[in-house]
Amino acid sequence: MKATARANANIALVKYWGKRDDELILPMNGSISVTLSGLNTVTTVEFNEKLRNDVFVLNGVEQKGDERKKLGNHLDLVREKAKIKWNARVESKNNFPTAAGLASSASGFAALSVAAAKAAHLELNEKELSILARMGSGSASRSIHGGFVEWQKGTKKDGSDSYAEQIAKPGHWENFRILTTIVSGKEKKVKSRAGMKQTVQTSPMYKGWLETVENDLENVRAGILKKNFSLVGETAEMNALKMHSTMLTTRPAIIYWEPETIEIMHAVQELREEGTECYFTIDAGPQVKVLCLQKNEAIVTARLGEITGLQKIVPCKVGGKAETISEHFF
Ligand code: 2P0
Q1: What are the pocket residues of ligand 1 if the criterion is a CB atom closer than 6 Å to any ligand atom?
Q2: Any bridge partners for residue 168, and if so which?
Q3: What is the 17 CA–ligand 1 centroid distance (Å)?
Q4: Going by fewer Cβ within 10 Å, which terminus of the chain is more open, N or C?
């Protein structure tokens, strides 16, 4: 009862920030993302009757405490569905820094869900996999799919209508690029889960966020289908700034930006003023993702490369869906 899956990270163009149900992980608003090629998590799961407890090894380090508990809770969902009681050994590797705002939980729970379901011989369709991944981490619901993806917030109490669906296939927009910058490999101070809860409870800006997000979803959805880069980029950049203004006005304030984060934002604005179209978006961390088209990739990369403190630029195309693979870690 062993299986391995690989899932890509995703970056939201319209963000998920805030839950209406903490237990089932149901969001306050819908979100749209693009799946990233090359930034992935690979996870092997084996259910084994000889194991006395679940074992979780992440990037070569055995996890205890909260991380193992979260994993165990997620495996329980699979064990319940499959009617099995066995514990599992799980080994997982990210090819990018964990918990630095590069959505490791999205690719992590998507890969875990696909691998665990297969190892338990569950035949789940993509909707069921997205719901399962969502219950591990909200953004993971989107990493089940490739291409451009929308996670419907849903309205039902049981969460059965809150899952992600593909808006457009990876091949739909071949020249769309996401340049992921890495300015700090440090673990962030405020995890998304705690941060978004505080925001919903205390930010006076949160009401404005909810009032405008539907319009952002419409614009980004339409922009993707028409391949209107300006519409997608402008809306995504403003949506990220709106989310960060709710974070900044949370009590206590959540400031994810580092000096380099702001330098990159300025560089993107300058590039635009000079006629090179590009836009930024930022998640719950200091990393900036710069959106551009292939024709401008070299010029944007060169400008970002001049910023000291910027450790790495990872260029990504639109990536594919989560899938099982045949090589296992053990
Ligand atoms: C997103 N983020 O849409 C937003 C933008 C961060 C900022 O989804 O509590 O790790 O596990 O559901 O999915 C990060 O939050 O939070 C996130 P949980 P998750 O990508």
Answers
A1: 12, 15-17, 25, 31, 103, 105, 137-139, 192-193, 283-284
A2: 148
A3: 7
A4: C
Nearest to 329 by CA among 2, 108, 64: 2
Query: Is the separation of the CB atoms in 119 and 146 below 8 Å?
Result: no
Residue 88 β-bridge partners: 47
Nearest to 261 by CA among 237, 234, 280: 280
Q: Which of 28, 67, 137 to mutate to test the pocket of ligand 1 (most atoms within 8 A of CB)?
A: 137
How far is it, in rounded angstroms, from Cα 241 to Cα 234? 11
Residue 29 confidence class, pLDDT cut points 50, 70, 90: very high
Write down the pLDDT at residue 276.
98
Q: Looking at residue 87, what is its pLDDT? A: 97
Angle at 228 between CA 224 and CA 231, to 5 degrees: 90
Residue range 49-77, pLDDT digits in tens? 999 999 999 999 999 998 899 999 999 99
Q: Find the length of the chain.
A: 330
Write the residue with the smallest CA distance to atom 11 of ligand 1: 137
Residue of 10, 14, 16 to test ligand 1 pocket, by largest number of atoms within 8 Å of CB: 16
For residues 240-269, average pLDDT = 97
How many other C-beta atoms are found inside a 10 Å radius of the C-beta of residue 51? 13
| Distance of CA 49 from the midpoint of ligand 1 (Å) | 34
Write out the two tokens for 36.
Answer: 């990233």
Query: How far is residue 35's CA from residue 8's CA, in Å, rounded to a whole number?
Result: 6
Tokens found for residue 263: 């330098």
In the numeric block, which tokens belong to residue 13? 């163009």
Which atom of ligand 1 is found nearest the CA of 136? 11
Quote the DSSP letter at residue 285.
Answer: S
Domain architecture of the chain: domains with CATH? 2-171 (3.30.230.10), 176-316 (3.30.70.890)
